[in-house]
Sequence to fold (821 residues):
Amino acid sequence: MDYTSMYSATLFGLDYPTLWFLVVGGVFSGYAILDGFDLGAGSLHLFFKKEENRRIALNAVGPVWDGNEVWLVIGGGALFAGFPDLYATLFSGLYVPFMLFVALLIFRAVSIEFRSKEKMLWWRKLWDTTYMISSSGLSIALGAVLANVLEGMPINEAGDYVGNGWDFLSPYAIIIGLTTWALFMMHGAIYLALKTQGAMYEFVTLWVKRSIIFFILMFLIASGYTMLFVEHMVAPLKEHPVLLLLPLVALLSIANIPRLAEKRKFTLAFVFSALTVSMLFILVAIGLFPTFLASTIDPAYNITVYTSAASEKTLGIMLLMASIGAPLVGLYTFIVYRSFRGKVKLDEHSY
Amino acid sequence: MAPLYDNRTIVAMSVEILSRIQFAFTVSFHYIYPPLSIGLGLLMVLFEGSYLRTGKEVYHTLARFWTKIFALTFGIGVATGIVMEFEFGTNWAAYSRFVGDIFGSALAAEGLFAFALESGFLGILLFGWNRVSKGMHFIATLGVWLGSMFSAVWIVVANSWQQTPAGFHLVGHGMNVRAEVTDFWAMVFNPSSVDRLSHTWIGAFLAGGFLIISVHAWYLLKGKHIEVSKKALQIAIPFVAVVSLAQLFTGHHSAEGVAKNQPAKLAALEGHYADTAAADMYIMGWVDQENQTVRGLKVPGGLSFLLDYDFEHPVPGLNAFAEQDRPKQVNAVFQFYHLMVAIGMALIGISLLAWWLLYRGKLWEHKWLLRVLVWSAILPQLANQFGWFAAEMGRQPWVVYGLLRTSDAFSLAVSKQQLVFSLVLFAVIYSLLFSLFIYLLNKKIVHGPEDRTLRDYRPKQASTAEIYKS
Fold:
């Protein structure tokens, strides 16, 4: 059955499933940039030893983490809405990882909300620990899920996952999981550098350096593994050498981060770590398209952008909604970040 | 191969049951919180709006105090809500494929127009008191409340479409059949959307309103925070009195809609079996499913009268529908429905009496009524839960009414073991979460609203640093 012919309408020369694929990619990339820094900051939490520093670190993300997490809700909704078949296959196939993921999400929300509500030392230590574990676990889980999408999954003709429950834990999933963790830590450390001052600021800059090294190391391993063992992800680059410009931009962007961090230009460093996140997403999108989730059983069972998309009418409605909604979301985000710009100041409303 | 197949059917059956248990458990737990956010949000808007208008410190104190309680409910609501969004895909893959084209656009709209608004401004609402102007803070409070109202719109639209599908056509066949939108607005304004949305909103107003009444009635009994508490009750009691009366109308309208669009559900609500006979309305009762009778206190022909103002009006009973097309748990549906109605009536009675005494300036003298008000916070919560139980169990055996059966909707890729694992996981986490919630809620209530004129503005670090030393 020729699915592509079902989608004739175009906008900017792209058909609706492709456009929605870009929207989904854009939302998840926005999510990674925004929630990425608070997950990263959380992953560094226990390295801050003083109570006041922990509170500053927590309150640096305090007013915004909830809004950042909404991008995940929007992303999930966008996936469900635009590609119901993919959403159904992916979520039911990766059942255990997704259940652990939501468990960690809850622990994280609880840790942030409840940590400073009691003064007992054990109470605060407990929630500090769960905050760091859940932030790290979520970063790794996000990467692991992505790796499963990149590698493909055992999917049968009906689109149902037929692997065993622990297949998701492949070496690639672990590598990409750790890479994501390292990326978020770097991103989060830079964010904290923007929000802190004095001795804590000095300490944070140390962690900016460490996490940059960790990330570059993981990035090299992940790139090598992808080129060797996940060839279909790099095939489009080989086919169209002009696309090699994109990994080049990504590399330059990554190289810029340590340079700017060294000069203590953290605002720019943050811009470039955000750019790095989006460049990596663009590379993922190019590697995948038009397949969304490859079947490791038979390429005929691949779930593509076209076979899993919603109807053209729904996609059209949602593109309209997105074009109205996106500026609004941008506006709220702008207002909130503007209201809390500058270094963290603790007051009686802080966590 | 025959035994293998049988095996699979048994496994599949328990996967269905376990998936239903998990969904029911997680959604019931989730539903404690969003109604509180909606209801508290509205009253916070009223408190803060009054502060802006009059400049009186008492309103400011109320707005700040309830914002703190709101923060507690909101965080849990978001976290448990993401669970719901994921569960459509993890546990109900076949359902997601079937409804994705329709349900999906509602969920996307919910994320874009509702969650982004409420979570975006939440930061300013909670942490912005000293950061932004009074006007901007009020806009943030309003934004958070409107966001929570919109989120109810889209999720109730999606659920209502499952009850009364409209504006779609079926595409494909066999396992690949799915519903696609043909008319977006017909889908949004499907026959039950408006009734169920207004009913849900008011249920949420009652949940928030009665929590506020409960806490401040308790302060009055304890002789604490008298001035703020009297002010809070003067606003909240008339509010709940008006909306609990309004709930009677939205409820009645909803029931008329059920009669028209989901007759098998209506029959289950009243345990009405006899095929096209006049139907009674029970005040309370017990359905004997074996013998298809109901014992209890009834108004003969009452249901017929409510639907057509005629005690003889014939109403199709459960037996008018094939056995496999009607709900099985008739007594449960009956009980949940009647409990909801009974609680609704009780709330009207309590709030009207309190309003009358308040009007005459005598409420503070009636300690017994204040004690009743303290416990009243639990009633709208129960009514909200029971109402949804009746609505969702009454929809069975369909997950999408008349189109997709629950038994065809669950994920084939998920095993029984995985479900047992996740169910235990949720049971543990939610028990912990609930205990923490109650503990901290209690703590905040005991601590009470700040008297800002006496406040010590030294930063908190000094005291907390000392703890680390000790």
